[in-house]
Amino acid sequence: MTDRCLDVLAIGNAIVDVIADAGDDFLAREGMHKGAMRLIDEAEATRLYEAMGPGRELSGGSAGNTVAGVASLGLRAGFIGQLADDQLGEIYAHDIRSLGIAFTTPMRSDVGASARCLVLVTPDAQRTMNTFLGAAQRLGPDAVDPAEVADAQILYLEGYLWDPDEPRRAMIKAIEAAHAAGTKVAFTLSDSFVVDRHRTDLWQLFRERRVDILFANEAEIMSLAEHDSAEDAALAVAAEVPTVVVTCGEQGAFALSNGHRYAAAAEPIRALVDTTGAGDLFAAGYLAGEARGLGPERSLRLGAIAAAEVIQHYGARPEADLRTFAGDLLG
User: Fold this and answer.
1) What order do you get walking across the sheet with 115-121 strand by strand?
2) What pLDDT digit, counting tens, does each position of 278-302 carry?
3) What string of DSSP letters covers 132-145?
4) Could you give the strand order of the β-sheet that contains 152-158, starting from the edge strand earlier in sequence?
5) Mean pLDDT estimate for the chain
6) Which domains does the chain have, with CATH numbers?
7) First to last CA, the chain
8) Could you tell me if 67 and 10 are in contact, meaning their C-beta atoms sit under 8 angstroms apart?
9) Fewer Cβ in 10 A, N or C end of the chain?
10) What's the pLDDT tens digit per position in 45-84?
């Protein structure tokens, strides 16, 4: 598959992150649960933005962060995500293209405002997210070009977009195109609420062998399999998915792939600043390894390296060239 144009093509929410420091007292006044993500409407997004301290505007979104990491590792990446024809949409499109990522999804004027996530970072580096999804959730099947999917080694799908109907249909179209072309399908569960709402149809997707690689954290995999052990849960899912990758925070990560277990420790860091994007960048490293045929053990190590870089600064995208950290792993 080396003649394909892209190593990884991702479908996800196109979201601009606005990141600001906040104290526990601010979260308490606003009735927020530290470390959680909540969905808000456009009016609440406007009100909260005005109440926040000074913020940094950075293009984000889970799958967008992942392909940014893939590109930083020197691989060819593409992204499909819906933007509105507005200022934030222009910011996002410029940012992602500036990284060398192929992005051709047309902006639309009939989908409301572009999505944004207001991220509040407390002194303990926990991030509390307030997300207005706006135009991102209006991604429809017409945005998916089967030829583009066929030109990728791996199709990577963001679980957050499994929730709304239009994007789910777009992702099903992409999965069908991937299997017709021999493109591997990777899926990230994204959040336990996605699992709770869609456990039945996710299991159907897996049992139909439509997913080749599944990414989850411990809470998500336990919710999916309804086990109180991440290891047991991963084993249950691995009966249906060839490769299951589970991140375990500071304990590192493990993968079950074709009957074998692999593990990698978390990389040492100087200081924990902001955990935003840790899972997204871990997926970037693993997918880069998968695209290069490095095997699960080295792919896990690449994931740990990419995650370590992003948690040492604000924002969910790498600030350094990840190839300098990968060393000889990528060859």
Assistant:
1) 37-39, 127-132, 115-121, 15-21, 56-60
2) 999 999 999 999 999 999 999 999 9
3) E-GGGGG--GGG--
4) 102-103, 77-80, 6-11, 152-158, 184-188, 213-217, 243-247, 253-257, 260-264
5) 94
6) 6-14+61-112+136-330 (3.40.1190.20)
7) 18
8) yes
9) C
10) 989 989 999 988 888 899 999 999 999 999 999 999 999 9
